[in-house]
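Entry 14: structure prediction run for Gamma-butyrobetaine hydroxylase-like domain-containing protein. Input pasted below.
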Amino acid sequence: MKAPKKIRLNRAEKTLQVAFADAEYQLPAEYLRVFSPSAEVRGHGASEPVLVSGKLHVGIDKVEAAGRYALKITFDDGHDSGIYTWSYLRELGENRADNWEAYLQRLRSAGKGRDPDESAVKIIG
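Run finished. Output tokens:
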């Protein structure tokens, strides 16, 4: 897969713009963090990926090339072990809506949230 023609980090908006010759994607830091290709998130084997919650406010500190085939993204929560290949970045861009909806459903099912300050205790009445 060819490298993107443009990669831009917007720290203020917490997004990574990735432009390929035929498509361009705005990928939020939270989305990139919870879909990190690291073993910490993907798991070690064929099991379901680890559900990462509470990353609503996460940002990106640094983006650097990993050879000629990928990016290494360092998040402001200290996570930096995922290598985002060009094909994985394209996949994340192409499938963003479906991936995000599935992620939100997994959070709801697990009783977890995006906001790290959200309490799991709800008072009704």
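Notes: The mean pLDDT is 92. Will compare against the previous run tomorrow.
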